[in-house]
Amino acid sequence: GIDDILLAIKGAMASLFTNRAISYRVDKGFDHLKVYLSVGVQKMARSDRGCSGVMFTLDTESGFKDVVLINSSWGLGEMIVQGEVTPDEFLVFKKTSSIIEKKLGSKIKKMVYGADKPTEIIETSQKEKESFTLSDAEILKLAKWGMIIEDHYSKRHKKWTPMDTEWAKDGLDGKLYI
Questions:
Q1: 107 contacts 98 by C-beta, under 8 angstroms
Q2: CA distance linking residue 46 with residue 42, whole number of Å
Q3: Which of 120, 129, 121, 115 minimizes the C-alpha distance to 73?
Q4: 48 burial class (0-12, 13-18, 19+ CB within 10 angstroms)?
Q5: What is the pLDDT of residues 24-71, one digit of tens each?
Q6: What is the reported pLDDT for 36?
Q7: Of the N and C termini of the chain, which has fewer Cβ atoms inside 10 Å?
Q8: Beta strand ranges found along the chain (DSSP E)
């Protein structure tokens, strides 16, 4: 509700004055009163009922720039970010927009919104463990978006700029979000 949103906004603004933030500004020579912060408020994608992950516009192990690498797991993406699950892995060749590799991750647990606390970690079902989180069409859509984002920033920086993007699939509306 609105009270929780206002409280979260105040918390974000107050974060400008934590010891860590103040120390960072002192270290970097930033004026404390010339630092700006904004808070974006948007609808939450219900990936706790779907899936989420990260996408890289290069092969993170070799640096090969002609592929998009997508990691995906059930639930909220924090499990991938923390390295708590082995996600599904999809590799798309940019020049032909073709899926060239699909690896099924074990995805043994997932993070979901909790009833009594903000989030909780639960085991995935056997079906979830044995199923890919994304369809081929969804893999290709995400890869296309990744290439569009990479192209935008590469043009802006006047050099190839690979991207690391987080995405989510809402389990209620079935749509993908960046």
A1: no
A2: 12
A3: 129
A4: buried
A5: 999 999 999 888 889 998 888 999 999 999 999 999 999 999 999 999
A6: 86
A7: N
A8: 51-56, 67-74, 88-93, 98-103, 109-113, 119-123, 164-169, 176-177
Question: What is the token pair recorded at 117?
Answer: 């606390």
Whole-number average pLDDT of the chain:
95
Residue 17 dihedral angles phi and psi, to the nearest 5°: -115, 25
Rounded to an integer, the average pLDDT of 96-105 is: 98
User: Locate tokens 């979830």: which residue?
Assistant: 128
Q: How far is CA 148 from the centre of its chain?
A: 16
Residue type, position 135, single letter: S
Identity (one letter) of the amino acid at 93? F
What pLDDT does residue 150 have? 98
What gap in Å lies between CA 36 and CA 148, rounded to an integer?
28
Q: Are 13 and 21 in contact (CB under 8 A)?
A: no
Rg of the chain (C-alpha set):
19
pTM: 0.82
